[in-house]
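Design request, tokens follow.
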């Protein structure tokens, strides 16, 4: 016998299937959306030799007058740095990094490197280590973690309450009220 298929049943099955796919995609995005801690763990796994410094430890170090302060290096794009940065941080130009590494190796001053969430800065810290600098740290969670905790960021010498979100994908790790409305980095 040949069974006739109900066209309404096929439509309902297809609709349920599409709904299930959309629900799974939404759950995956939600799980990924604001989980900076999970991404920080991924960075630590990718760069296991790079020493990660917590924002709390950096605050403690910077306030300790008995310790030589670290040189803070911002390795984000210039447009990101101009919106805001950590106090007294130096922006590192892409074409100036080699020169900076040579100067850092000569001075042996401790270095703390940061970017938006820690991926670019961990890579740069790893390159510094490879070049022989042993006193280098990545700021765990970088400027997004710092700002999300309510710590001050600066534009020049002025305290500001905004950070360049880099782009839509990475900006999800930054609290929405901290987003600067600046052009996206390409």
């Amino acid at each position: 016998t040949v069974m006739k298929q109900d066209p309404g049943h096929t439509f309902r099955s297809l609709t349920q299937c599409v709904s299930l796919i959309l629900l799974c995609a939404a759950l995956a995005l939600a799980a990924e959306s604001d989980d900076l801690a999970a991404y920080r763990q991924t960075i630590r796994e990718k760069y296991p030799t790079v020493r990660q410094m917590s924002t709390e430890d950096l605050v403690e170090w910077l306030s300790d007058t008995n310790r030589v302060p670290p040189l803070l290096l911002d390795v984000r794009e210039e447009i990101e740095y101009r919106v805001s940065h950590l106090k007294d941080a130096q922006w590192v130009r892409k074409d100036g990094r080699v020169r900076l590494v040579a100067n850092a190796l000569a001075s042996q001053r401790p270095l703390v490197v940061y970017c938006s969430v820690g991926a670019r800065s961990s890579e740069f810290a790893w390159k510094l280590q490879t070049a022989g600098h042993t006193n280098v740290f990545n700021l765990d969670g970088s400027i997004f973690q710092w700002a999300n905790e309510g710590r001050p960021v600066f534009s020049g010498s002025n305290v500001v309450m905004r950070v360049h979100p880099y782009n839509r994908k990475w900006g999800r790790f930054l609290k929405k009220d901290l987003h600067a409305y600046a052009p996206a980095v390409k």
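Comment from the thread starter after seeing the answer: thanks! The first strand starts at residue 51 and ends at 53.
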